[in-house]
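Dear Dr. H.,

I hope your travels went smoothly. While you were away I took the liberty of generating a structure for the chain from your last submission, since the lab meeting agenda had it listed for discussion. I wanted you to have the full record in hand beforehand rather than looking at slides cold. The sequence, exactly as received, is reproduced here:
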Amino acid sequence: MKENKYNEETFFYKYGQMKRSKEGLSGAGEWEALQRLLPDFKNKQVLDLGCGYGWHSIYAAGNGAKFVIGVDLSEKMIEIAREKTKYENVKYQVGAMEDVDFPDETFDVVMSSLAFHYVEDFSSLVENVFRMLKSNGVFVFTVEHPIFTAEGSQDWVYNDAGEIEHFPVDNYFKEGLRSTQFLEESVTKYHRTMTTYINSLIEAGFTIDRVVEPTPPDHMMDIPGMKDELRRPMMLIISASKKKVTIKWIYRRENRSTRQ
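The corresponding predicted structure, in token form, is as follows:
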């Protein structure tokens, strides 16, 4: 995410015109699915990585969080987040999520919305999140689905009449950089497989609690293009937790390190 596309004037303006930018969580097709996976925020210490406009940080504070720290690389995003946030226990920082460095076991909850596909080294980020989480802490995030990011164009294949034929999936197992078009602007993202997402969490020590491929709710189906979202997954939601460390888990980690 160090590319900082969201600080560019034209791109930032176009992003601000999106439904989810104007309406907040209620304008996001995946929100209802994500909301069901979020933990009880009451008296929790929360970190929001790639916080954007601060919608999720505000939600956490509004549901009883003790304090929330939102981090985003875009100064423009943080400026909007501060304007929208009325809770004094929510603080925002400008910075790359890959560089976040809080003390061990600082947070009860770490969350992120549609930001990790901008990160090149997902494994290192996950290991850092695990370190910053308290025992029994919760890690919930959304990313663009690997099927959506694989081919790179992130657009449908159309027939001569301009009608959708299918969605392209290619080079699925070739992980890494993708240069794509988002809001008619060139954007750099990173593709990784479902296996990499899940195994990176497991290898860092997390327990996978839920994996969801969200679909838009029925009440949004009248919005142009929403019905087509049922033809392929666009997003992926994963909920994981940091269970209390056991002797067996320590042995397994040490034994793996020895074999390496």
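Two observations you may find useful: The longest strand covers residues 133-144. The mean pLDDT is 89.

With kind regards,
E. W.
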